[in-house]
Amino acid sequence: MIKTAFYDAKAYDMPSFIKFGNLKGIEFKFLETKLSADTVELARGCDAVCVFVNDTVSKEVIDRLYDIGVKIIALRCAGYNNVDVEQAYGKIHVVHVPAYSPYAVAEHAMALLLTSIRRIHKAYNRTRDFNFSLNGLTGFDLHGKTIGVIGTGKIGRILIDICEGFGMNVIAYDLYPAKDSGITYVPLDELYERSDIISLHCPLTDDTRHMIDEKAISKMKKGVVIVNTSRGALINGEALVDGLMERKVGAACLDVYEEEADIFFEDRSGHILNDDVLSRLISMPNVIVTSHQAFLTEEALENIAETTVNNIISFFENDGRCDNELCYRCGKIEQCKKQRNQKCF
Ligand code: NAI
Known about the structure:
This protein has two domains: 2-100 and 298-337, NAD(P)-binding Rossmann-like Domain (Rossmann fold), CATH 3.40.50.720; 102-289, Rossmann fold, CATH 3.40.50.720. Helices cover 33% and strands 14% of the residues. The protein has twelve helices and eleven strands. The protein has helices at 14-24, 59-67, 85-88, 102-117, 120-128, 154-165, 188-194, 214-219, 237-245, 276-283, 298-317, 334-337; strands spanning 2-6, 26-30, 48-51, 72-75, 93-95, 146-150, 169-173, 197-200, 224-228, 249-254, 287-289. A six-stranded parallel β-sheet has the order 7-6-8-9-10-11, sandwiched between helices. A five-stranded parallel β-sheet has the order 2-1-3-4-5. α1 (14-24) links the parallel β1 (2-6) and β2. α1 (14-24) runs parallel beside α11 and α4 crosses α6. It is globular, with a radius of gyration of 21 Å. The two termini are 25 Å apart. The protein binds 1,4-dihydronicotinamide adenine dinucleotide. The site of 1,4-dihydronicotinamide adenine dinucleotide has 31 residues, from α4 and α6.
């Protein structure tokens, strides 16, 4: 049995991991706590650790995992901005789940957008209170509006298809535009200037951190709706609050938030929120926040568990080789993986 410390375990993700773990020979040690320098010792005696988006896999954590003999860090998500991949190189292999249900995330982006612009959240609360007034619920048609999609990978492209189904005009920006895709790519500034709605689907990197800042917002159309189901730090939260206060930004739909790590995924209803920016955002009638739930569908949870278990098994039974390794060696992390069938080190 391969022993795996499973950090930040939740009731909704344990059943599929137990199912696939039992099938393939992995014994999970489920831990409610997140991985951090304070909790790394809990992985002692384990061959692998399994982590999620808000676990801290810093230089210090990696070095201590290495010291206690952990061989592989298995991310049960696609994004890996919380892992110091460079530090891990040469010590511990890092694998992820490149795709589990891009439909789940793209559909959630559209769900947030529709909820926001048709005021469904307000209508729901009103009718539960037998308030059938329509005042203040006026929305707008998506048909004929322009959406700017930033990042046209798996999720961005599905959202594009959905938007085309709504009769929207789609423009896009990507650092690596997809050839022969039929997607209308424009420079980023033009996307900001022309879009009624902007949806973010690029990864969080040094280049994209705070890409939506005061300067970017100043270039946008008045009343623009910003949708973020990617990573919170793509947006500078204070700049977004200012944009909303100045009525430049018409609405924001956020599934992710820069400082979500110590807030999201837990019931904090009995506490006073210690984050002024998030408190202000949540208090605004034109902001919808969900707590990083875009991935949360039955299909995605099954796929995540199956791929993660296969990643760990493949690593231990295939001499350290795994298709889904995040390779630091050539500095291109994901692009490299697609061209090789060898291990990173
Ligand atoms: P993907 O890797 O298929 O696509 C990402 C796209 O972004 C690629 O086309 C890439 O060329 C592009 N890109 C890279 N750097 C860029 C830049 N500087 N500017 C513009 N485009 C750039 O990734 P996928 O599967 O579509 O996921 C997108 C993001 O969604 C992930 O990075 C992750 O952060 C987020 N995500 C959020 C989830 C949630 O539950 N809210 C669940 C899964 C993913």
